[in-house]
Amino acid sequence: MASLYFHIPFCKQRCAYCDFYTEVAPQFIDIYIDTMIAELYARRDYLLQSETVSSVYFGGGTPSLLRTQHFEKIFYAVNQIFTIDKNAEITFEANPDDLTADYLSEIKNLPFNRVSIGIQSFSDRFLRAVNRRHSAKQAIDAVQFAKDYGFENISVDLIFGLPGQTLKDWTAELKMAFSLDIQHISAYGLTYEDGTPLWKSRMLGNVAPTNEQTMNQMYLRLLQMAENNGFEHYEISNFAQQGFRSQHNCGYWKNSKYLGIGAAAHSFDRVSRQWNVASIKKYIENVKGNKTFFEKEILTEKDKYNEYVMLALRTAEGVDCEYINKHFGREFSDYFFKNIQKFILTEKIKTAENRCFLTPKGILISNAIISEMMISD
Ligand code: SF4
């Protein structure tokens, strides 16, 4: 099984915390779609003919800025080239203010069966603080409209630790999210990435990050409320009702192959990783001009080990010790089993059925544990 990813690097306005590659450049959307289709045909052999596509994902940026005819062109090309599994998960990311009844009515005949809505907060105050372009009401309406138009697999993105947000505020956000009868939640702690407007505000002393203790309390509240509401915690930042894990993201975490199309999109075939140029203009020029539009690295055994450990430790299933022994040889498995001991002794890692996974205590310092378990140069 393999996945397809389409990167739509357009936004109507930039959010204050975002460091993804996107541009406010709607004038390029039409030509960009045609270029993605050209790339898709040019790279049709990246996935083997025998491989069935089990998930298709439109991420961004803001895929909900595309119109029906854009998606139709892409799906036409996809169906010409690949075999899509009849149960494939087909997702698009949407901003709440785009997800109106009119828009959903326009796209209702497209093959999407999952929508991921970038809500981030249900409070106008916090949305404004990070320059999100929608309102709390639009967020709630978007979920309802998606349901009205038949979506039975709805995911919502939330951010905790927004400027000025307290534990009580975050609890209210979670209450609202769980009251919406959705199937999936992705929740991330706010980070102040270098160079973003939010980072600049912090440098100027206009905003202060939420302290670590409160961030931890917010995360633990999320774990508790997810459990109380019957959501399984299947990856550090992801929670799903039974049967609604994101198949696309699970593919990434399980080392499946994926073909990423579009500016700044990444691809992976288990042997190498490649990433397209992060510039809409250069991407269009180079694809159309038959020039190189990506960089590529061949993965060493160490890269593969690091990648496996980093991704597997983030998931509820954790690291498969037998897989480490079988696939990475003596040197890497010795390193893994020697270094994991201290985390087991301090109850940050639990073991069961020949697997190692993070405990709630371990999740709070997951970045530090993962970086210690990886092998540096
Ligand atoms: S809409 Fe999403 S991709 Fe665009 S700036 Fe905001 S967070 Fe970044």
Topology, pairings included?
Layout: E1 2-8, H1 29-42, E2 52-60, H2 68-81, E3 83-94, H3 101-107, E4 114-120, H4 124-129, H5 136-148, E5 154-160, H6 167-179, E6 184-189, H7 197-203, H8 212-228, E7 232-235, E8 238-240, H9 247-253, E9 257-261, E10 266-268, E11 272-276, H10 280-288, E12 294-298, H11 301-313, E13 319-320, H12 321-345, E14 349-352, E15 355-358, H13 360-363, H14 366-373
Parallel strand pairs: 1-2, 1-9, 2-3, 3-4, 4-5, 5-6
Antiparallel strand pairs: 6-8, 7-8, 10-11, 11-12, 13-15, 14-15
Bound molecules: iron/sulfur cluster.
Description:
The protein is an alpha/beta fold and 377 residues long. The chain has two domains: 2-252, Alpha-Beta Horseshoe (pyruvate-formate lyase- activating enzyme); 301-373, Orthogonal Bundle (Arc Repressor Mutant, subunit A), CATH 1.10.10. 42% of the residues lie in helices and 22% in strands. The protein is built from 14 helices and 15 strands. It has helices at 29-42, 68-81, 101-107, 124-129, 136-148, 167-179, 197-203, 212-228, 247-253, 280-288, 301-313, 321-345, 360-363, 366-373, and strands at 2-8, 52-60, 83-94, 114-120, 154-160, 184-189, 232-235, 238-240, 257-261, 266-268, 272-276, 294-298, 319-320, 349-352, 355-358. The chain has a nine-stranded mixed β-sheet with strand order 7-8-6-5-4-3-2-1-9, with helices on both faces. Strands 10-11-12 form a three-stranded antiparallel β-sheet, with no helix packed on it. The protein starts with a strand and ends with a helix. The mean pLDDT is 96. It binds iron/sulfur cluster (SF4).
